[in-house]
Each structure stands twice: as structure tokens, then as C-alpha cells.
Design goal:
Elements (H helix, E strand, L loop, with lengths): L12 H13 L4 H12 L8 H7 L9 H13 L13 H21 L3 H4 L3 H23 L3 H10 L10 H12 L1 H18 L1
Length: 200
């Protein structure tokens, strides 16, 4: 049997707890699951490496793949990025998710004159709304994955932030600080791509 490598993983409580979370999530996308497990073993944050993964993988395996989008939604819920979170408790992950969600829903309503409140009671229109929402999310996903550094920051501030949002000013400044910090930009980019996948 040919081995590509061998290593020993020392059991650390935090790592085993995180691995248990990944197992309980029952991810359907092998690509998504592999990245999450690699992050656990390398002791990296859950979002680590997803920007590179999305930039180097065909969109048929990411934003256009239902299993990948489902897994992104599950991972987002794991990190407690829910609508019920108090404003003062919002983390950067939560703030970016809310910003992306506002952009996708707002752009869908503005571009196609469709909102969830209009279609929620009419099943035929729900499907049309979902298709348009996915189209908006995919366009943004492709734009984000092709941009890095200052190009990504310019796109995020001019496009993702172009739709009104309900984030308080102090928390909005938190996003701005992360975008101005070269060490944090890749984190924001990874979280943006994951959020777009989750919302799609």
C-alpha cells in the first residue's frame, strides 16, 4: 500500500469537541467536509481556507452545488449567526453574514421587484423568487472569488454595502476595521463567500 503521508494527532479537548461538531453536522459535500476536518486537525478557525477553496474550485462544486450551499448554511448556524442574536453580541462572522444577506435580499427586490413577503403565500412565485435570489448570490460569489486584497475591499464596500442595512454604526465600524487590516481581509473574504453560499 502506497502512503502519501502519515501523522499523529494528539487528542486535545477543544479539537475533539470541534470534530464532534463536524461529525454531527453530517455534511453532504465532500469538499466542504474535507476543508472543515482539515481546519480542525490544523487547529484553524472553521472558515479558514474557504476563500482559496472557492477561488480554485469550479462553481458547479461550490455555489451551484446544493450540498455545498446546504453545508454552508449549517456551518453558519453552528457559529450561532442567527437572527435572534443581540446587536451587542454580534461577532464579525455574524456581521458579515447579516451584511451579505441584506445585500442579496435587497438586490433581488430592487432588480426583480420581488420580495419574500410578496411571494410567501403563492407557491408558484416562491420558486421564481428562489431562482432570482440564487442568481444574485451567484453573481456576487463569482465577483468576490475573483478579487483579492484591495480589489476585494473595493467591491465589498461599493457593492455588498450598497444596500441599506440594520447594523448599528459601532458594529459597522468593526467591519470597516477588518477591511482596513491586511491580516483580516482574507477572513472577511472567506466569510463573504460562505455567507453568499448559505444565502443562495
Amino acid at each position: 500500500m502506497r502512503l502519501h503521508g502519515i501523522n499523529r494527532v494528539l487528542p486535545v479537548r477543544r479539537m475533539t469537541d470541534e470534530y464532534s461538531k463536524v461529525r454531527r453536522a453530517e455534511y453532504l459535500s465532500a469538499l466542504f467536509r474535507r476543508q472543515r476536518i482539515a481546519n480542525v486537525l490544523d487547529d484553524k478557525p472553521w472558515w479558514w481556507g474557504f476563500a482559496r477553496l472557492c477561488a480554485t474550485t469550479p462553481d458547479e462544486m461550490t455555489i451551484k452545488h446544493n450540498a455545498f450551499c446546504r453545508d454552508a448554511r449549517i456551518a453558519v448556524k453552528e457559529t450561532e449567526m442567527t437572527d435572534a442574536a443581540h446587536e451587542e453580541d454580534m461577532t464579525l462572522e455574524h456581521l458579515i453574514y447579516k451584511r451579505v444577506q441584506s445585500y442579496v435580499l435587497g438586490k433581488t427586490e430592487r432588480k426583480y421587484s420581488l420580495s419574500w413577503s410578496q411571494v410567501k403565500n403563492t407557491p408558484g412565485q416562491q420558486e421564481e423568487y428562489d431562482d432570482k435570489k440564487k442568481k444574485v448570490a451567484r453573481e456576487a460569489f463569482l465577483a468576490v472569488r475573483s478579487r483579492t486584497g484591495a480589489d476585494f475591499v473595493a467591491y465589498f464596500t461599493s457593492t455588498i454595502c450598497s444596500v441599506p442595512h440594520g447594523v448599528p454604526e459601532s458594529k459597522y465600524l468593526e467591519i470597516a476595521r477588518a477591511l482596513m487590516d491586511p491580516k483580516e481581509v482574507e477572513k472577511v473574504r472567506s466569510l463573504t463567500l460562505l455567507a453568499l453560499s448559505a444565502v443562495a
